[in-house]
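Record type: ASSEMBLY
Status: queued
Input:
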Amino acid sequence: MGTASGIIKALNSGIKHIATKRFTFRYPEQKLKFVGDGYQYDPDSGVGIAGYKGRHILFHDKCTGCQLCAIACEDIAEAIAMVKVPEQWKHNKKAIMPQIDYGKCVFCGLCVDACPFYALYMTNDYELSSFTKEALIYTPAQLQVKPKVDQDVEIQIDEKGANHG
Amino acid sequence: MTSQANPKNKEILPGLQLETVDDKIMTLNVGPQHPGSGHMRIILKIDGDYIVHCDPDPGYVHRGEEKMAEYRNYITNIPHLERPVIHDSCNILYPYCLGVEELLGLEVPERAKYLRVIASELNRCVYTQYWLAIYGIFLGHSTMFMWPMGDRELVIDLLEKMTGARVTHSYFVPGGVRNDTPPNFEDVCLRQVNYFEKRLKEYADIFYDNPILISRTKDTGILSREDAIKLGTTGSVLRASGVDFDIRKKEPYDVYEELDFQTNVLKEGDSYARSKIPWLDMFESCRIIRDALQKMPKSGSVRIKLKPNPKGGDTEVYRRVESGRGSLGMHIVSRGKPQPYRLKISVGSFRNLIAMPHLLTGEMLGNMPAVYWSLNYWPVEADR
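Status: finished
Output:
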């Protein structure tokens, strides 16, 4: 192939893309769609349920304060600390529950695998940035809240190419 | 890496040399801050425009992964072991999981084996696309930076659906994989992989058949077949020099022997051939994924339940896999404790770096990025 024809071919393959729709999406206005409600784990079968590994959700009515999540995290990120909660539960005599520091968490989800009581799951919430380091520490009361995540776009493929809808 | 002893240098103390300054030779430090050198320093001695001596100086991002592994048990080792190469995190965990399974005597479920192959091939595509984007921008081809970075999203999206994270998946565990695929995953995967392959074909016109790229990379940094074997290179560097060596074919692990694919070998051994091999490998990855999706058992367990803190016997195992950068092996020594006694990670990046002084000496300075990045070298992985 000659040099000139090669360059024309290269230019042509780039120019074709001027007319096609952009593949990327505008992030803060549009948000990506995930499968499911986040990563979960079934201690009976020992297998996880596929989902995004975002911020955790803690079910206060199930947590027994056994500290297994904190022990699992000990060698990984040391992000989980057990703290006193004001509530009184029959199944949680010590009244302690995990508090997660998202400045340290690596979102591996091994704490979810460690929980034998279906109390700790992960959610689709990934927008955790804050102005202070202290605000990244989520108390058991904050972890209890179910996040509201907007999900509007996902990859669509047609004859012309792929885009995010 | 030790610098070559210059006979002119005087040894003032044992092991300490005083370097003689040559008026004609200039020393040029590329890195370690420069993003082009990628967290390492390349000490170049240049005479005019020609490199007379090259001394790569890695180690700026050493994290002590091997030592850290000695204080963590077989499960909690997973998240930190994938940090050296986060784009290829499934492949770096592969030999570890294979090794630990051999130590603990675990039999992985059939479906998990296929899921591992799919995740590892998708990861290879993610890594190679990232590498290709950097290679494009190194050569001043900014379109080739945008395209692979954009198309990488197709594969990252699949991995996100499958594992729950865009990078650093922590998906492989000794005894299988963490979770099964979401419903309808096979269709989505097939559709996106087919489109990804279609996009890869478009790279030929704009990049690989582009006369400007060919003139920059052809016949630069030629590594002969004998030298490639002698220097101990692996992966795409070795295959670009005409040696047909792929661990997926030579020592098949998991279900690779049942899958239909071929290894790509080129004879030239120059930067162009070295940059083309990973691109050709991505087509094979697409082929493997399609084949694995077809042959995979439709249901079944994907993970064996492990006891907490499993202990290995008094044995040693060594397992290796083919990663995006070549052979990636892990040697695990167990002394009957929940933690490994010693974990040695042997990576392809470091092996390929050894060829760098050989290739750059005598080359022009302008060809340095083209030769350097074609070695498929990932500094963070080489430093561990």
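Annotation: The mean pLDDT of chain A is 86.
Annotation: Residues 32-145 of chain A form a domain with the Alpha-Beta Plaits fold (CATH 3.30.70.3270).
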